[in-house]
Design goal:
The complex is a heterodimer of chains A (237) and B (108). Helices cover 73% and strands 0% of the residues of chain A. Chain A has 237 residues and is mostly helical. Chain A has one domain. In chain A, 38% of the residues are buried. Chain B is mainly α and 108 residues long. Helices cover 65% and strands 0% of the residues of chain B. Classes of the chains: A mainly alpha (237), B mainly alpha (108). At the A-B interface, helix 1, helix 2, helix 3 and helix 6 of A face helix 1 and helix 2 of B.
């Protein structure tokens, strides 16, 4: 193990990240709702269809987070990369966050369009399973003891394997959930609102990922500093 | 304190802007009845599997609630991350002050 005297002061909170978050939030709150309200109303479901413009981006980003966590966890398991583990935990938290947004917005839409809050069809069930897997990931890291990180990384591999199942479920089985062909076949009037909403949420994902990564990197620096302090007998074990 | 003020600003923006706009649009949509044909029948455009839909359920608050929840959740996430980072930065600064300012030594 190599140790260097790296007792530099902690980096201040990245102000540029915070300002980018503010800009994304402002764009999201001001511009995207305007575009959504100006987009043509879907003739069958009416106004409630507007939930589509943020439900779908949340779903895609939850799956992106799950995939990122799965790949990072695989790198951590097989190459013992601490950096990959940092990416994995950050992506897992974002998967839980965007998964929660998807699971809340979906039933609000379903109550109006299907008449029920929830249906145990394949798409909804596998999505709920994905969310639960990554909650279990976070619990395993928090309470799993010395081997918790490796246990959680193993869970993340199962979660990542669920992602393609979620995507193709509506094609393989008869479900009440709309098909994946909805987005490619969007009417022209709906595309600006949808794609701007998707871009806004993707930037939000990247910014949150960046903020979360900085926290993990700060923790790693703290551990290194603490070890140095222990070696210098400045702190107790 | 700055982050708390930012959080309050964003929350007030969500509830002050999105909810009234969404509700007003839903009210307009709800009050425009479909046109009847020559025999007086009003066409039912619902798909066959929508027999249980409560037509009286307002769509505007549902849309606003979904959108507002997403932003509140994101801001809570940011707040929690900032809350975890603050004591860490303080502890790191304190440790850095206590460590002796010696030249780097490598032990491999």
């Amino acid at each position: 193990m190599s140790m260097t005297n790296t007792h530099v002061p902690a980096k201040p909170a990245a102000l540029s990240s915070l300002w980018l978050m503010i800009a994304v939030t402002a764009l999201g709150m001001l511009v995207v709702p305007q575009l959504i309200l100006r987009a043509p109303t879907e003739p069958t479901m009416g106004f409630v269809y507007n939930i589509f413009y943020f439900h779908v981006p949340c779903a895609w980003l939850a799956m992106l987070g799950a995939f990122t966590c799965g790949i990072s966890s695989a790198v951590y398991l097989f190459k013992n990369s601490e950096k990959a583990d940092q990416y994995a935990v950050a992506a897992a938290e974002l998967t839980v966050l965007f998964g929660l947004c998807m699971i809340v917005s979906g039933p609000l839409w379903a109550r109006k369009s299907w008449g029920v809050w929830w249906q145990w069809d394949v798409r909804l069930t596998t999505t709920l399973l994905l969310w639960i897997i990554f909650i279990a990931y976070l619990f395993a890291r928090r309470y799993g003891g010395p081997g918790g990180r490796r246990l959680a990384a193993g869970l993340a591999l199962f979660g990542a394997a669920d992602v393609p199942m979620i995507y193709i479920s509506v094609s393989l089985w008869r479900t009440i959930h709309p098909k994946t062909s909805v987005v490619p076949s969007l009417p022209a009037g709906m595309r600006p609102a949808f794609y701007l909403s998707l871009c806004t949420f993707t930037v939000l994902f990247v910014v949150l990922m960046q903020m979360r990564l900085r926290l993990e990197q700060a923790r790693a620096r703290y551990v290194a500093l603490h070890l140095q302090a222990q070696d210098a007998d400045l702190v107790d074990d | 304190m700055k982050r708390l003020l930012l959080l309050c600003l964003c929350l007030s923006g969500v509830f002050a802007f999105v909810l009234p706009v969404a509700s007003s649009h839903a009210d307009v949509a709800a009050t425009s009845p479909p046109a009847a044909d020559s025999e007086g029948f009003v066409p039912d455009r619902r798909p066959a599997n929508m027999g249980n839909v409560e037509e009286g359920l307002p769509a505007g608050p549902l849309v606003a609630a979904a959108y507002g929840f997403i932003w509140v959740a994101a801001l809570v996430f940011v707040g929690l991350a900032a809350r975890r980072a603050s004591p860490l930065e303080i502890d790191m600064a304190q440790l850095a002050e206590r460590l002796p300012p010696v030249a780097g030594s490598r032990v491999s």
